[in-house]
Amino acid sequence: MNASRIFLAGHRGMVGAAIQRRLARENVDVLTAGHETLDLREQADVRAYMERERPDVVVLAAAKVGGILANDSFPADFLGDNLAIELNIIHEAHRAGVERLVFLGSSCIYPKFAAQPIREEALLTGALEPTNEWYAIAKIAGIKLCQAYRRQYGRHYISLMPCNLYGPNDNFDLATSHVLPALIRKFHEAKQDRKSEVVVWGSGTPRREFMHVDDLADATVFLMRHYDEDGPINCGAGFDLSIGELAEKIRRIVEFEGRIVFDATKPDGTPRKLMDSSRIVAQGWKPKIDLDEGIADAYRWFLEHQAEEHSRTRAMRR
Ligand code: GFB
Asked: Which of 196, 210, 235, 255 is deepest in the core (most CB within 10 A)?
């Protein structure tokens, strides 16, 4: 890669950590800064950092993220923090003369009832899903910022839209996590506690597309090399499944023998979110990690890093 210094914003998150692992295989220096030294919501701090470090490329993987309930419960954080992070990084990167930047968005930028699979052209053609419109609007603003700095100043800033992601370093907190880590934890704890059932939120009918975060990291590096266009580019697994089917799959991988019950008082969110990733596929990239193997990998990570801590907390509560 002909960039020697890459500033990776958000290296401690699930996505950023995966990109850091992937960049370790390239001949580049990866610059990182934890939030104790750099608060990305503070413009002056970001300006000072960019002026001091002057990276060749910025990868913007920092964001306030969470599952359906967190999105719905903390609208100010999801809109405000994300807008601040994006504006500070994109503007200050431009100001410091950074030529190339990769912005990571989300498939929730597309309209709630977009035709499936969702093409990049569906952006801004319809109303958003209300449970995550705060986050979606911030991510749409990030895409538009990349386009604006490209059009006005000729910057090579691109936007990548991943589907729902999972993998090592995911958030397993049941109140704020996404569905896949939540279900790994729920089935694991139900198995340990010899429970007879696990509660899955919503009706089980919404469909989602899941990709292992290592595939996304690989796509990020691929696009850094091969993509330099104005519009966002989708990056997904190419297939979806219902939440009920996902739950059954995780139940089997975790080896929980009880029942699955659905809690209809919890929101379903978007009915279906399958992206059309034919553009990145046509460029020569495709995901490699099979969903069953990927879930087994995420479960292993949970067992090695989180299971014990959660079981201590549960024991204290009892
Ligand atoms: O992963 P998730 O929270 O986010 O939920 P979204 C996906 C589906 O799984 C919803 C159901 O229909 C949930 O009701 N679900 C079932 C559960 N059981 C659970 C559970 O225990 N926990 C969780 N969290 N869900 C998010 C957006 O949407 O996806 C973000 O809110 C972002 O902005 C992210 O785009 C990728 O796929 O609905």
From this structure: 235
Helix residue ranges per DSSP H, the chain? 14-23, 43-53, 68-73, 75-76, 82-95, 133-153, 179-192, 213-226, 243-254, 278-283, 291-305, 307-317
| 8 A C-beta contact, residue 99 and residue 7 | no
Convert the pLDDT of each residue in 25-44 to its tens digit: 999 999 999 999 999 999 99
Query: For residue 241, what is the enclosing H or E element?
Result: strand 241-242
Residues written for the chain: 318
**What is the dihedral sign for C-alpha 123, 180, 20, 310?**
positive
Say if residues 167 and 212 touch (Cβ distance below 8 Å). yes
Give yes or no: 110 in active site: no
| Distance of alpha carbon 11 from alpha carbon 212, whole angstroms | 17
Number of the ligand 1 atom closest to the C-alpha atom of 108: 35
Render pLDDT for 56-113 as a digit per residue (tens, 0 to 9): 999 999 999 999 999 989 999 999 999 999 999 999 999 999 999 999 999 999 999 9
Kindly report the average pLDDT of the chain as a whole number. Answer: 96
Pairing state of beta strands 210-212 and 164-166?
A: parallel
Query: In a 3-state reduction of DSSP, which class is residue 109?
Result: helix
| Residue whose CA lies nearest to ligand 1 atom number 29 | 67
185, 201, 249, 250: residue to mutate for ligand 1 pocket, most atoms within 8 A of CB? 201
Name residue, tokens 């608060």: 39
Tell me, in angstroms, the distance from the centre of ligand 1 to residue 179's CA.
Answer: 5
